Amino acid sequence: MIDFGRTLVSPADLPLFGKRVLVCAPRNYAAKLIRLLVLRGARPIWMPTIVIEPMADYREFDAAIRRMGDYRWLAFTSRNGIEAFFDRLVALGLYTGILEHTKLAALGNDGKALEARGLKVDCLPAVATTKGMVEELERRGEASGRILVPVPEVQGMEEPSIIPDFTGWLTAAGMDVHRVPAYVTRRVADGFEVEKQLIVDHRLDLIAFTSVGEIESLLHVLGDERGALDSQTIACYGPMTAGGARERNIRVDIMPDQSSAFEHYLRAIEQHFRKLAA
User: Fold this and answer.
1) What does pTM read for this prediction?
2) Which terminus, N or C, of the chain has the lesser number of Cβ atoms within 10 Å?
3) What does the alpha-carbon distance between residue 252 and residue 14 come to, in Å, rounded to a whole number?
4) Residue 10 confidence class, pLDDT cut points 50, 70, 90
């Protein structure tokens, strides 16, 4: 067990010492991921190909929250959706008591964010994917009634298939789906000349993705040079991100067996490089 709290650490004790890791996550995810990489000796390079921002107009979301008693289920597909929901509760002067008659569904470690607020998570599928959530609801005989799904409003790029697929599966299972925009996911397409050259020149040890949106935006930045990814080592946080990479013909080298925490993600990355060094 490595004590990452020590001030003086030998390079030999740092699993990712000197590794150049490109991180494409938005600020809220990148902050934690980069810290964990630094603690393990890596040299992270931040290239936020997407940003997460507040909505300009919350009227539809607020109206849904005020009518929470109309929904049998509230399903979260990301931590961003959870944070957006509770931000609006505060803005509206409401409390978690409005969820008294609504069941909650979440994925992976996001369930802990709900439990930390004193809430019970009624559906936390063993397979932390949107498909896994639908299958778990069907298995329990819960795939009926009205369900609220807070989702991103995607700007500047084509929406990844994850949310449309999810709402489609819910509808096919028999649920009355209300998809509502809760936050903005926006592509960042410029200001990445240095980072792009590092990819093209093969000067990275790893590219770490945490969402399909990051992948889609990086491909846009690379343009005709997207083939440069073919020789990169690619790590994906969880099966949904890995699936999005493979749909875009990107080879996935690293994916944690568990996708409930960044610590599992880092452990899978460490194991990959230990095997290479063996």
Assistant:
1) 0.89
2) N
3) 24
4) confident
Give bridge partners of residue 151 from the DSSP assignment. Answer: 181
The larger pLDDT score, comparing residue 11 to residue 158, is at 158
Q: How far is CA 21 from the centre of its chain?
A: 18
Contacts of 260 (CB under 8 A, 6+ apart): 108, 109, 128
Cα radius of gyration (the chain): 20
Phi-psi category of residue 136: left, alpha or beta, with phi > 0 → left and psi -120 to 50 → alpha: alpha
Instruction: Burial-class residue 59 by CB neighbours within 10 Å (0-12, 13-18, 19+).
Output: exposed
Helix (H) or strand (E) holding 44: strand 43-46
Which position has the token pair 């979440």?
Answer: 106
**pLDDT digits over 198-224, tens only?**
999 999 999 999 999 999 999 999 999
Reading the block at residue 46, the tokens are 């931040």
Bridge pairing between strands 234-236 and 206-209: parallel
Report which secondary-structure segment, H or E, holds 102. Answer: none
**Of the candidates 245, 87, 90, 61, which has an alpha carbon nearest to the alpha carbon of residue 151?**
61
Residues counted in the chain: 278
